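Input sequence (111 aa), recorded before submission:
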Amino acid sequence: MASILNQVIDQGTTFSKQITVYETDGTTVQNLTGYTVAAQLRKNYTSTAYTTINATNNAPTSGVIVMSLTAVQTATLKSGRYVYDLQITAADTTVTRVLEGVITIRPEVTK
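Predicted structure, token format:
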């Protein structure tokens, strides 16, 4: 089962979050060598429109994934509530959702 992490992002700002993925025992870091990662943000679960959240697996042996959005990406999002998830895919094509939640985009004033 995926962990739940609700987040708040200020519209028009750069967002970056490091996520550490653990094995199912919850105590050891998962080695993500050979895994691909993907994350999306949608207005609701049934929306066909989405924003790709940049997800990188630059430190696979430490189990760290970095999720990020540029200031341009967050500026184009309307303020409000969105849902997101982060999935990893193993070399054998097994897909696991490791994180999910709600992202609230707070409106910016300075543009």
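Checked by second reader. The mean pLDDT is 95.
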